[in-house]
Amino acid sequence: MPEKVLTNEQISRMVDTSDSWIFDRTGIKSRRIASDDETASGMAEIAARQAIEAAACNPEDIDLIIVATGTPDRVYPSTGCLLQQRLGIKNCVAFDIQAACSGSIFALSIADQYIKSGAAKKVLVVGSEICSRIVDWADRSTCILFGDGAGAVLLGASSETGILSTHIHSDGEYEDLLYCPNPQAASGTNRQGAGYIAMRGNEVFKVAVNTLGRIVDETLDANSMDKSDIDWLVPHQANIRIIVATAKKLKMSMDHVVVTLETQGNTSSASVLLAFNEAVRDGRIQRGQVVLLEAFGAGFTWGSALIKY
Ligand code: ACO
Asked: I need a labelling partner for 117 at 20 to 30 A (CA). Which of 50, 184, 197, 201 fits?
């Protein structure tokens, strides 16, 4: 996470809002904001090095890097390639995937297919986002939500633990509810608002709650599991009300839901991996436990990964 903290109080001096409105509607109190010299690839490097160290892995053994980001340093090369170069890894494949807030779940799904097919042995998955650069800081309906950060996980083949299944979906029908026009590619009327997130939050909220309810059922059915088999829910951190609705669907106490949103806001594709990292490192998630990761984002895109840690 970047060091700089931006509180609701500070935002209430920039736009017409208040700490209590933001906290009551979203569960967010503060978020981290990258400094001018921080980049998605730079934050990705810090997260990746922590994952490599935790896994006691030789970076040269990594054969695939997948970076999920909607805020790449450059249109190209990919942030994956920039990260590969930062890590000094010569012989691996690297690319980005773009699935907005579901990005790290999509990346986990791709990594899982590569590993299960034998095409890769060690895959580095990173979600890295500088949302603050695509937020319109004059728009109170979006600028209160987002934060910056990066999360990483290293996956390797194993017969005992790991990803039990992944489920990913897309529906481009909803493109107008949540989008960010690319200022370089936009022309004519599309240039209006180019570079900034635009969202019809209330409508996104309703679709998100319904869709995440369905993905919970789909994941449990695919693994012939009951709700009670899930030890931890690690949801995308968009809004505490969406998270509570998903926990209710699982009949799960909030004590078993990892929530980082209060101090991180919505870090888009980084959020699930940041939350997973926090709960593994502080000892809440224990070896052998079953963890459900899920996310929903622009596209719309949504998905889940069921993990036996
Ligand atoms: N402060 C004070 N008032 C505000 C603010 C604010 N920051 N923002 C909006 N309002 C006002 C609105 O103008 C509106 O006023 P009106 O009734 O006079 O018209 C009123 O508050 C209610 O606005 P809503 O948009 O209906 O508020 P809602 O309860 O839906 O909360 C929120 C808004 C927090 C954005 C919520 O809709 C949400 O979380 N949506 C889902 C976001 C999400 O999950 N996105 C997907 C992932 S993000 C990605 O993929 C990049």
From this structure: 50
Residue 81 annotated to the active site: no
CA-based angle 295:87:45, to the nearest 5? Answer: 40
The one catalytic residue among 101, 131, 143, 180:
101
Expressed in angstroms and rounded, the spacing between residue 248 Cα and the centre of ligand 1 is: 22
pLDDT tens track for 64-108: 999 999 999 999 999 999 999 999 999 999 999 999 999 999 999
10 Å CB burial of residue 131 (0-12, 13-18, 19+) is buried
Place of tokens 């449990």: 220
Q: Decide whether any atom of ligand 1 lies within 6 Å of the 141 Cβ.
A: yes
Domains of the chain, with CATH numbers? Answer: 4-156 (3.40.47.10), 163-308 (3.40.47.10)
**R_g over Cα of the chain:** 18
Q: Kindly state if the Cβ of 178 falls inside 6 Å of ligand 1.
A: yes
Residue-wise pLDDT tens digits, 167-214: 999 999 999 999 999 888 877 777 777 899 999 999 999 999 999 999
Of 92, 236, 239, 277, which is the active-site residue?
236
Closest CA to 268 of 114, 106, 154, 136: 106
Active site residue 167: no
